[in-house]
Design goal:
0% helix, Thrombin, subunit H, globular, 6 strands, mainly beta, 110 residues
Length: 110
Amino acid sequence: MEGNKRQHPRKAAFIIAEYTTNKGTFKDVLKNIGADGLFVRTWRKFEYGTPIVLKFPLFSFDQIIQASGKVIRNEHNGFAVSFDKRINGLVCKEGHLPEIVHESNRISLK
């Protein structure tokens, strides 16, 4: 799945995700997401093939998705993950991805 050999398109995202690897549990921002994987924006680097479990809101802030996968690429601004099992709700229909939530849509209660 290197380069642009994705089975499913990705959608730009700005979602805070919690993820766990053999190095611990962390929180960072998802840069993009698709049915078969995502990109985490971070300074952290993980070895190719590192197992990872992620938790994040996807279609609403009260619906938390848990997905497992492995790290497939590191870049200067983050890393890419390939899911073990695709997220069916993100399969492109008629050329359009479903709407996802974004952190910028959260309402600040003061």
